[in-house]
Each structure stands twice: as C-alpha cells, then as structure tokens.
Specification:
8-stranded antiparallel β-sheet; 6-stranded antiparallel barrel; 23% helix; hydrolase; Peptidase_S1_PA; serine protease; disulfide bond
Length: 392
C-alpha cells in the first residue's frame, strides 16, 4: 500500500526447498534438459508471512504447519514450472497442482519427455495438443470478440488439465453460432453450461481503498515506481487517464497516467512525491504482507486477495488466460480463481505467498455464498507502463 511513513512488516516463518541437480546417464540432449529442469532451481526461499495464516485457515482449512508446507511446495513448483516450460518448448502443454499435494503435474505432447519427468519425481500426462495450440485457438475467439462481444457467452479459457478451450454458455445454440463464425477449430473447444456471471467489481485497497474523482471507490493493487516516482497499479475500469485518485480522508494521492478497459483491465496512478511506495499488502487483520517479487504461481496454488470491501480472502488459482465477456466488453488474458470478492474490491492485490500475482478485475457471487473472481496478471501491467514493482 502507499503510506506516508515506513511501516513495520509482519513477522514471518521462513521455509526453503533445496534440490540437487541430476541428469540420467546416457540421456539424450532433450532428456538431459528436461531432467535438469526438474531439479535446476537453486534454493527457493519462500517465507510464509504470518499475516497469511488466519485467512488460509478460514478459507482453505490449512493449519499453520500445513500452510508452511504447502507454500514451500508451491514455491518449488513455480520454479520447476518455468524451467520445464523452457526445456520442453513446443512440447509444453501446461502444468498444475492438486489440492492434495504440491507435486507438479506436467502435460506434454512427447511421451519420452513424460517418462523423464516421472523419473525426476514429477507427474506427467501425455496429451494431444500443446499449450501453444490451445492458446492460438483461444486467440481466434478473442479476435472474434473484439468485433462484437458475444451474448450468452460470459467466459472462455484454456483448461490445461482438460487440454481444451472451455467456453461457458447460457445459450448453447447462440454460442455454437458464434464459434462457427469465429473460425476456431471445434475439436479444440468444449462448450459447458455457464456457472459464472462476471461483472466488474467497482462501487461507483496493496488492498487499501482509494477514491476516483471524489466519487467511485476501488482498491490499490501494488505500489510501483517509475523513474523513482511512486505510484500504484489497479484495475482499468476504476478510472481513466487524467482521473484523480484520493485517500479515504480526501488527501490527494495522484493522477491516473494510463488505463485500458475493456480489452485489458489495468491502470496505473502516479502518486505525489509526498507518498512512498511500500512493498506491502494490507491483510485486514492489523498487519501487512511484504511483496518480494512477481513469480507466477502454478494452477492449483493458493492465492489471497486484499480489497477494501471484503478485506482478505483466499482460494486457489483455477485457470490462466481466461476471456471474460463483461457487459462493457471483453477482457482477455485474465486468471480465474476460487476467491470471493464484491464491488469496491476492484483493483486490489492478488498474492501467492510473497509473490504478487495481479489486480482484481471482476467476478461472480459474493463472500457470503462464495464466488469466482478474475485478476489481471501484474507482470503485463508492469511491462506495459515501464513500472518497477515495489519489493522488500
């Protein structure tokens, strides 16, 4: 969050995972690269912020010890995922974790690669389609949606575990008509009954509240800097370039420098020099979580959200690269989660362990009955505006 004075970070439990590098004797170049990817990461330090623990127990039923074990495994899996993605190249078809443990399941189109992954202690699934193939199919749908937001089709995403593009629909016939017009390969698509009715989560805080043009309220995503100037990222539907941002007490924070919605759902606010970009997220329990980086958590990882309406809520990462068709237009490349949220939480922080993940875009349901929430990944926002994430 942006604070005028430096805050003291909450206490944390320190955990680490150390794996040796081993390659099988007589292995081919490809097999050796994959084997090394399974073990190539150095010690992965994954501190467990104490501020995370109450929400992980409430929302996911994890005891402090179970949470520490889970987050250690997730940090290791995130490093392995990136190394394997590079090693497999066009044979990569995704990876995910299950609720039961943090052994990474890796999908690949290459049976030999799958055998090497299993020999290295992972799980593997041989599939027909590479992730690049599925991403291209989804991009075809996205291109069609840019012309006209499809009605009765609130959402689609690449389901890595199912090795297909899943399209949610409230009217199968209309959705099939849209798919036919889009030109997408129908073999790659699976149409399912819509379970989501997403809408942007804005009323008209990472996680603190701020007000746009002294009226609408949203939540700060992550503090950033640009050429030494402080600021923060948030959702694009919260405000337009030139809009003002103010603290709840009316004190000016700064001005929106960039904003895009629909298409993407991100923005950034340049703050006045009296503010300091602190690498912290409000956990709404009297403490903060320190942000240490922005490594992408694998599918199945625990993730928590901070927002000014419903505070601190946790769940799991469900899918990457989802397209959400809001009434205002389609938004592409969102991450789908089982975390609940409500209006006013928009723009707020999504964090896994101590790693920033994204800013709240929208969702369905609420925090009374539960819901589904989507976030705009943070790394593309940083790249788009040339920002540096505040870390500690």
């Amino acid at each position: 969050m942006l604070r005028r004075h430096k805050a003291v970070a909450a206490g944390s439990l320190a955990i680490a995972a150390l794996v040796a590098t081993v390659a099988p004797a007589g292995a081919s170049t490809n097999e050796t690269a994959i084997a090394r990817a399974m073990t190539a990461h150095q010690e992965v330090a994954a501190p467990v912020p104490a501020a995370l623990l109450p929400a992980l127990r409430r929302d996911l039923g994890l005891t402090p010890q179970a949470a520490a074990t889970r987050l250690a495994g997730e940090a290791r899996a995130a490093a392995t995922q990136e190394a394997l993605k590079r090693a497999l190249g066009n044979r990569w078809a995704g990876a995910w974790l299950t609720d039961a443990d943090t052994t990474l399941t890796v999908a690949t189109t290459d049976p030999a690669a799958a055998r090497t992954i299993v020999a290295g202690g992972g799980r593997a699934r041989v599939v027909r389609n590479s992730l690049a193939t599925l991403d291209r199919a989804k991009a075809t749908l996205d291109k069609a949606a840019r012309t006209a937001t499809p009605k009765n089709t609130p959402l689609w995403y690449v389901d890595q575990a199912a090795n297909s593009v899943v399209v949610q629909s409230t009217d199968t016939n209309r959705t099939k008509d849209f798919l036919a017009r889009s030109g997408v390969d129908h073999v790659l698509v699976r149409v399912v009954r819509a379970s989501d009715a997403p809408r942007p989560l804005a009323d008209l805080r990472g996680g603190d509240a701020y007000y746009i043009n002294s009226a609408a309220r949203c939540s700060i995503g992550f503090p950033v800097t640009q050429n030494g100037q402080p600021g923060f990222v948030s959702a694009g539907h919260c405000g337009q370039a030139g809009s003002s941002a103010a603290a709840p007490d009316g004190t000016s924070i700064g001005t929106f420098q960039g904003s895009t919605f629909p298409g993407n759902d991100y923005s950034w606010v340049q703050a006045d020099t009296s503010w300091t970009a602190q690498p912290q997220v409000n956990n709404y329990a009297g403490g903060t979580v320190t942000v240490s980086g922005s490594a992408v958590a694998p599918i199945g990882s625990t993730v928590c959200r901070s927002g000014s309406t419903t505070g601190w809520r946790c769940g799991r990462v469900q899918q990457f690269n989802a397209t959400v068709n809001y009434a205002q237009g389609s938004v592409f490349g969102l991450t789908r989660t089982s975390v609940c949220a409500e209006p006013g939480d928009s723009g707020g922080s999504f964090i896994s362990g101590n790693q920033a993940q994204g800013v709240t875009s929208g969702g369905s349901g609420n925090c009374t009955v539960g819901g589904t929430t989507y976030f705009q990944p943070v790394n593309p926002i940083l790249q788009a505006y040339g920002l540096t994430l505040a870390t500690g």
